[in-house]
Amino acid sequence: MTTDEIARLIELDEKDTEKLRDRAEVLTMMEVFIEALPDALIVADAAGGIVFCNANAELMFGYHRSELLDQPVEKLMPASFAARHPARREAFNRFGTTVRSQTMGIGLRLLGKRSDGLEFPVDITLARLVHSRGIFNLASVRYSLPVNAPNMGDPADDTDQHNGEANAGH
Q: Which residues of the chain form beta strands (DSSP E)?
């Protein structure tokens, strides 16, 4: 159904119809922005069920979006992390109302788990969204570089190892 058809159904005047078109355009732009984020974005409900993920989440974890929706977020963690995660999520849900966002696992090595079982280090920042449909936790996930990783901005490094080819699959 087009915006014009919707407008006719609810009998909006021209000014309201333009507002509806503008809002639809903004929503479309927001969808494009979210899909273009450099990090994987995973949104879970308060119980830990995945309700949204972007294209980079699919690439990072090796699942198609349809394989992640309605699944527990623990599916993306090694078993040792997954076993402890529900209690940590409960604590975040209880005390998260006082924090807008927080980095997860400060001082700890966090791991993600791909569909093929490969485990890899990640950095995760959480944000909480309280909505009329419930509480949602947004996780921005990125690959974690080892502490001894070369500085990609070091002009003294004249090798070609940082030209992006190593990350072409990400």
A: 40-45, 50-53, 101-103, 110-113, 119-131, 134-143
pLDDT tens digits along 55-104: 999 999 999 999 999 999 999 999 988 898 888 888 777 775 555 666 66
pTM of the model: 0.69
Angstrom distances, CA of residue 107 to CA of 30, 103, 104, 147: 33, 10, 9, 12
**And the tokens for 61?**
């974890």
- 57 within 8 A of 75, measured Cβ to Cβ: no
In a 13 Å sphere around the CA of 111, the CA atoms on its Cβ side amount to 12
Q: What phi, psi does 87 have (nearest 5°)?
A: -65, -40
In angstroms, the Cα distances linking 22 to 5, 8, 29, 44, 62 are 15, 16, 11, 29, 35
The amino acid present at 156, given as its one-letter code, is: A
The DSSP secondary-structure symbol of 69 reads T
For residues 105 and 118, is the Cβ–Cβ distance under 8 A? no
The pair of structure tokens assigned to 25 is 């355009």
